[in-house]
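Supplementary Methods S3. Input chains for the assembly prediction are listed below.
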Amino acid sequence: MMDTDDIARTARRAAAACAGLDASAAARRLAEDGILGLLAPEEVGGLGLPLSMAAPVVAAGAAELLPFPLTEALLLARLLGRSAPDTATAIVEGREVATIAWRGALRAEGSGVLHGTVGRAPMAGEARWLVAALEEGGAALIDLRAASGSVTVEEDMSSLDLERPAALVTLRGVPAAQRIPAGADWSALLADAQLLRAAEMLGSGEHCMETAIAHITERRAFGRPLVANQGLRFELARHKLALENAKHALDHALAVAGQDPHGQSIARLVARATAAEAGPMLCEGAIQLHGGMGFTWDVPMHRHLRRVRDAAAQCDAIGARAALAARVDEPAENEQGWAA
Amino acid sequence: MDSAALNALASSDPAAYRRAIRDWIATNLPPAWRSDAIDKVDPTLEELKDWEARMYRAGLWGAAWPKEYGGHGLTLREHLIVSQEVGRVPMPESVNSIGKELAGPIILAIGTEEQKKRFIPAILEMREIWCQGFSEPEAGSDLAGLRTRATHDGKVWRINGQKIWTSGGWRAQRCLLLARTGTLEDRHKGLALFALRMDAPGVTVQRIKQIDGEAEFAQVFFDNAPVEEIDALGAPNEGWKAAVRVLEIERATNRMYRAWRLENELRHLVSACRADPNLATLLSDPAYAQRLAQFRIEVEVLKRYVEGAVEDLVSGGSIGARGSLMKLHWSEAHQRFVALAMELLNQASLPPPPEVRAAQRRFRKAYMRARAETIYAGTSQIQLGIIADRILRLPRAA
Ligand SMILES: Cc1cc2nc3c(=O)[nH]c(=O)nc-3n(C[C@H](O)[C@H](O)[C@H](O)COP(=O)(O)OP(=O)(O)OC[C@H]3O[C@@H](n4cnc5c(N)ncnc54)[C@H](O)[C@@H]3O)c2cc1C
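Predicted structure tokens for the full assembly:
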């Protein structure tokens, strides 16, 4: 049995090997190491591991700027494991690419065919499968390939991500390949996606911070290494604090994720808010510490920032705090048993 | 329930252990001593000493200390449970936290058997209150520049010099004193720790009035004050190492209840606001709601650090520099929170309901006190430096 560190190392290597590949090729490469089935049930070739094992994997993918919708694949392989085992198996084996539209909902009309536009679907242009929410609740699995005549895929201009360009997908009367009922599985997917996004942000953020430290250690100005300046050291210390705060919050949320099927825990809100603020701060801070170099296209810091900004928008620190504010004096989940 | 019965519960039924501690506090803490009491009464020093001695006898102090020195022989996990329960109730702060949380652990770590037998029970039974004599007028952040000298006259150590900002120096029987046995140029070398008697000849204490109106801290002058050989702690040149350890404890596990007490402050503020029509409206104002939720987030994060530190220590790890992350985090978060509390409570209806007046009294004090939180136990700048040097391991200037 692999431990978390082994899995993270394997994922890091596999993700590095995916540089420059398209989504289908990346899926095949990731499947070679069994990465896409981490969360999926064993019946579809998965490992059935808890969410906490997936977090270091998506973090490693983030550090390597993995050009693949990994969070989506991991969660869909789990979600569809029982309801659409063939699709789940194809995802786990890296034969087919699946993605999720994270914004908007489709309308089911008359005979049940789907209409409307959904957004924030990473790499939908390269995916066979799309899962999108329905206005009536729950979601639908859509075979984009089979429906190609009634589907338009355009660039989603609200996104910054370069490796996993987000798409707006418009459907005009497309039947669902599978209905996913509103219920525990679907809400768990939505809530768990937030924690994996948090892990991705921290993976990118930590990588950027380390790169910035290496840069200011190397570079000299005013007759000494930049890192000797207290102003920069203190700033990095604050970055480290934000990172550690968010990691502590995320580790706890992951540890208690299984006890919280509807994804409503205070621990999750805390993890969302802390990561959604630490991630952008670390990446933007690293760009600043690179000076003019940080503004160049070739230095990949901006790629991290782009991904992190997209994730932060979805983790929505303001929304998480607003939800928490309504429950600000509620005991935390792990403390509820303490009530007198 | 006596402490033996309570301690037996710790391993057999942790939930019952927690309940027993909670019940004991609920039964024994005078309601008027609570910081959220509408008719609050400040206990006297004698009452507080008695209260803490009773807490000890009931099993609430010394949980993790060895039985042979009067402790209850449990682990830091039980100390955490006690701390959580102590934190949830706004009871008076310990008047001997330096004895219990700094001197005690360091004596247990580096003291002789005789010292452990003599000092530890006296701390738990509240016979000896301790203060911490580290800072000096010319050595605060730059502690290694301290000048108070300890010279051996053939019979005893003789202390000459001055300490300042010594919390509780005026009520202490013992001082955990850091003094120089070598020369000033030796810096970190040539420092030693002592357990100085505050009633020794040549020790003079002057209280200093603080911005919150209290005079908790003091300056302490030493004019050839004697320290017996048996009261020297650790080797004469190992003082710095021991002092660093004291400071690490001070930042990481000291007042382990803090996260839960801060949560109690948040609850108190919210419940006071709900009791006032003006303030109740403000609670749902998005600007205030965001800041209140942010503090809850910061409290939850602090809990995670504390729980993580306890688990690491129980499994044999060391505290290390992580306390600097914790200290920087909570002190700044708390300062923001008490400022928020003042902003809210300033907008109370007139006349304010009694719950609101009680909260105003609590947070007015807390607001002024909080200014010290980014100064004592190493200023925020010093914590940032430690994080940069020892956690991030950033190279120093070449
Ligand atoms: C309420 C209270 C209780 C205290 N109790 C005790 C006690 O019981 N025992 C005890 O020994 N001490 C105690 N102290 C003292 C406390 O530890 C010192 O005040 C603290 O270490 C700062 O030292 P200083 O006051 O000399 O300030 P300084 O060291 O003179 O610092 C002044 C300012 O300069 C900054 N600064 C200093 N060095 C650097 C640097 N290298 N880089 C960047 N900025 C820097 C500091 O952060 C601070 O903002 C207490 C202090 C307070 C406020």
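Chain B has a mean pLDDT of 94. The domain at 130-239 of chain B is CATH 2.40.110.10 (Butyryl-CoA Dehydrogenase, subunit A; domain 2).
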